[in-house]
Amino acid sequence: MSIKENYLNLQKEISETCAKTRRNPKDITLIGVTKHQEISKIKELINAGVEDVGENKCQELEEKFPDLKELDCDIHFIGHLQSNKVRKVVEMANYIHSVDSLDLLRKIHYAASDIDKVQSVFLQVNTSGESQKFGMPPKEVESLMTTMKSLPYNNVEFIGLMTMAEHTEDEEKIRDSFRTLYDLKEHLNITHLSMGMSNDYKIAIEEGATILRIGRKLFE
To answer: Which residues span the domain enclosing 52?
Structure first.
């Protein structure tokens, strides 16, 4: 199938899942994850109706950026952000989903300040407890947010929380990861939850996701 057909099928499935849970599909933003995709394919995706694209690697985003900035889309950096890449990513991305420490937040603030930008960020939370995954433990989120509010970081705008569930066939493990993030959202009065990928986006919608990060289902 074409990228447009994949997109329309995905939108249909999102709408059907929302109907089951009495949610409004308009409350959900779809990020097309474009890592390893050629610009021609990304253009097809945007022409099909996707308004947000996500990249995982700074170097790949740098290569694509001259073309991406000419397209009508918002750019999300969704991969692990190394300290030495902060300045470059801040110059290119509208949103950064992978902030997992006060030190990284500080670096983003100063990089954004230098170019007179307010950088939108998500805090990445490791809700699955997997040692190989990045993100802060759920129990540390509230204290970091409290610290953030007390600091004069006017060049950082906090948007929401992000997580990745364990890649497993065990639906309850996936659901537990998403519920943990949702509970944090409710406790801390947060608006957006970036969670759900090609293999688990329906569960993510059921558990309150407002932003989905989907690549394979759009391009394969």
So the answer is: 3-219
